[in-house]
Design brief:
Blueprint: H1 2-23, H2 33-55
Length: 64
């Protein structure tokens, strides 16, 4: 479970960073903070949940 949270936080931060870099080249009135934060966070959550399901993480999983 610890790996899940570390991957989620890491991927979210990388996504937010990349979105912020892209935002530098787009006019300020088009992009707001919600389009920078929400999509990377949602995509990171979906990726981590899919990976957890694939690897068999669950309520009875043992942390390493």
């Amino acid at each position: 479970m610890k790996q899940f949270f570390l991957e989620f936080i890491g991927l979210s931060l990388v996504g937010i960073g990349l979105s912020s870099i892209v935002n530098l080249f787009i006019p300020e009135d088009i992009v707001n903070w919600q389009t920078i934060v929400f999509p990377p966070t949602i995509m990171s959550a979906i990726y981590c949940i899919a990976k957890a399901v694939e690897n068999g993480y669950g309520e009875d999983a043992v942390d390493d």
